[in-house]
Amino acid sequence: MIDYFFFGKAKEERTQLRAISHFLAKRVRYGRDILPTALLLRLQEARGLCAKALHWRIVAADRQGILTQLEGSYGDLLRTDRHHGRRENAEVALVAIALALGVRAYFFQPFKIPTHSMRPTLLGILNQPELNSPPHFFPRVLDFIWLGKSYHRAAAPKDGTILSVREGRLGGFIPWTTTEIIADGWSQSLWTNLQEAREGGLRSRSGDQVKQGDVLANFSSTTGDHLFVNKMIYQFRKPKRAETFVFTTDRIEGIESGLRLRGIEGSQYYIKRCVAIGGDVVEVRPPELWINGAHAEAAACAKVASKTDGYPGYTFGPSYLGKSGDQYRIPGKDYWAMGDNSPNSFDSRGWGPVPAANLVGKGAFVYWPFTKRWGLIQ
Prior knowledge:
Blueprint (H helix, E strand, L loop, with lengths): L7 H24 L5 H17 L6 H19 L5 H23 L1 E5 L13 E4 L7 H11 L1 E7 L4 E11 L3 E10 L2 E5 L3 H6 L9 E2 L4 E8 L3 E5 L12 E6 L4 H9 L7 E9 L3 E5 L2 E4 L2 E2 L3 H7 L21 E3 L4 E5 L9 H4 L2 E2 L3 E10 L6 E2 L2
Antiparallel strand pairs: 1-9, 2-8, 3-8, 4-5, 4-7, 5-6, 9-18, 10-11, 10-18, 11-16, 12-13, 12-15, 13-14, 16-17, 18-19
Helix pairs in contact: 1-2, 1-3, 2-3
């Protein structure tokens, strides 16, 4: 009698055979280059039996006989040591890590905007005072997930004298920077560093007398824009005027000398707008940027010069293009970098052109937070 095995025991056997066939195929696929030829041949024979047993016209007795043969003659192929699953999971994890590192190294690398030199195109970390108390738990979670916004508030639990305001670690040892406000008999913590707390309005200092209920700090912190940088594109073409690009500060003495004075060693990553390329002559005629004797026509540069929607216009620099009539011709393989927030951007006007060897990639996509800046970078 022909058994179509859609129901009952036949269906269970069919499911078992499919699982065995999948397992055997996986062993062949993973071990084709390393397993002995004899073992690979036995695996293929077992797969052939599975295929025969899964044919829709096979009778029940023949199918059960194949299952018995698989267990008797090929059972050793169907059993693995107890660490096999762990090894497979480890292999998958290692492949995933390798792919992630490869993508980061050669294709797209994530960056976080720390400052406001590109504002309002890209925003850095923003700490600002709040008039109202922080919202309840769930609105706060949503604000963080959607906007990257967190809230910080501290009030004096009782009268006292502040003994110190300092940075510490969460719980004293967990590597999460906190701001500790320590008084005689009590202390308060803010989950942020001291600089950000000061920017947010923390004014308490050692020796201050406070009363119970005095608000010591009440501010919000909005994370800087997180973006992906296309690291491949400059392998095929050079940067274009007006596109946002990332570069290292290596060998740019005007930057690195200042970093050394602050105790920072090694190259840093900067993100600016490439407003001009090698051979161009640049000049600032506030609020416009001029290139080769004409105002910069690129839409992004025109937007900065418009002094609308938060764009401040281009301003003179501290070292280059410092006054009306100053011009600078960019060396042949270099690039001129300027921030969209021109009055508050330390850029090529302060330290000169960017060498071609310093290029990292083109600013491609803001992936978080989900504000109006989310998406392709213009």
